Amino acid sequence: MKDLSYKTESFTESVIREMTRICDDVGGLNLSQGFPDFDAPEEIKKAAIDAIRNGFNQYPVTFGEPEFREAIAKKVQDYNKITCDPATDITVTCGATEAMMSTLMALINPSDEIIIFEPYYENYGPDSILSGATPRYVTLYPPDWNYDKDELAAAFNDKTKAIIINTPNNPTGKVFTKHELEEIAELCMKHDCYAITDEIYEHILYDDAKHVSLGSLHGMEDRTITINGLTKTYSVTGWRIGWAIASERITQRIRKVHDFLTVGGPTPFQHAGLTALAMPESYYEQLASGYYAAREFLFHTLKEVGFKPFLPRGAYYIMVDIDDLMEQLSAYDDFTFSRKLIEKTGVATVPGTSFYANGSKGKNQVRFTYCKKMDTLRQVREKLLSLV
Ligand code: GLN
């Protein structure tokens, strides 16, 4: 039979989501895929049920229900310091995942390059291939996951169409500082390219880290696409409500792609989103302090067990160096390590190479998530301590 698409041949299925399936098969403790094992706030769930009862069950306005876009515009003005017109500058999508894909498809022409910081959230690899962009990777160096300014500058050239920035960052927990974002903005303006920011973890910050939106910086208003969603902030990973904010010129193109790709994000959950976005300040404080306690617990557990964890300043993942435990598990790389760890302890992680383009990097790293109940994390500790 004739070949299937070369594009879909050139990447594998998501390792993160595969680890969840393996974990479910063995009834393990899932510290691989980043979704909470606790429920969304009661009032947000009730708002979704009410929306369904009240008849919000047909197609939404394709680029987002008007009231929901208005609420998003207000929120980004207040929290992100980005001014946008809900009528022309917002596209509501099926999760931030679709927002990223629709944005790339709206921007990319053959031979365009995009810059991605590495390690990176694994979706950006296939996203590049599917959109036809050629990725150029710029290394984030542990333990602080800083980039080298000269390496970043050298990655820009005439073909560079866009740079993707995920802050707070998955998988490293890096929170890009205002100074770093200003450096990036300067390069974007110098080389006339766009910035696509994935800010899905914007409320999950520790140790006085501050979230800064690149789109709020002077000169970046018309060249930044700011992506976000309800998913992580309100613990509703299954709702699939995201959005992309960009100037009208860019939004018109994103909306076209989005319309033909998915038509719209689920209508009742957009209406429930009004309740989510109206949550009081105390909700966000509790979210961050809950994750802070989980970070402290898992970070110290991982050290106790003999891993070398890198302390995250945001999001809910910890990358660890596994060198010192490799022999003990008779593992020779990140994949064998993750498999042996789940076999021996029932704890699922994501192999480090999933976050690197070059397979030789990340072989001595795995990623743990801690968006779990303290009780789950205590069970994880018991299991992991059996290795010591
Ligand atoms: N962001 C989550 C992670 O890195 C997963 C998101 C997803 O699977 N769509 O684990």
User: Helicity level, as a percent range?
Assistant: 40-55%
Number of domains: 2
CATH class of the largest domain: Alpha Beta
Whole-number mean pLDDT: 97
Q: Tell me the structural class.
A: alpha/beta
| Spans where pLDDT lies below 50 across 5 or more residues | none
Question: What's the helix count?
Answer: 14
Separation of the first and last Cα atoms: 53 Å
Our Rg estimate from Cα atoms comes to 21 Å
Q: CATH topology of the largest domain, which one?
A: Aspartate Aminotransferase, domain 2
The counted number of beta strands is 13
Q: What CATH architecture label of the largest domain applies?
A: 3-Layer(aba) Sandwich
**SSE series:** HHEHHEHEHEHEHEEEHHHEEHHEEEH
Q: How would you name the CATH homologous superfamily of the largest domain?
A: Type I PLP-dependent aspartate aminotransferase-like (Major domain)
Report the β-strand fraction as a percent range. Answer: 5-15%
Strand order of the largest sheet: 2-8-7-6-5-3-4
Compounds present?
glutamine
The major beta sheet can be summarized as: 7 strands, mixed
Principal-axis shape = globular
Description:
It is built from 14 helices and 13 strands. The chain is α/β, with parallel strands linked by helices and 388 residues long. It folds into two domains: 6-40 and 282-387, Aspartate Aminotransferase, domain 1; 54-277, Aspartate Aminotransferase, domain 2 (3-Layer(aba) Sandwich), CATH 3.40.640. It has a seven-stranded mixed beta sheet with strand order 2-8-7-6-5-3-4, sandwiched between helices. Strand 5 (160-166), helix 8 and strand 6 form a beta-alpha-beta unit. Helix 5 crosses helix 9. The longest helix is centred in the last third of the chain and has 25 residues, at 281-305. 47% of the residues are buried. The model has no long low-confidence stretch (mean pLDDT 97). Bound molecules: glutamine. Glutamine (GLN) binds at residues 16-17, 33-34, 97, 121, 170.
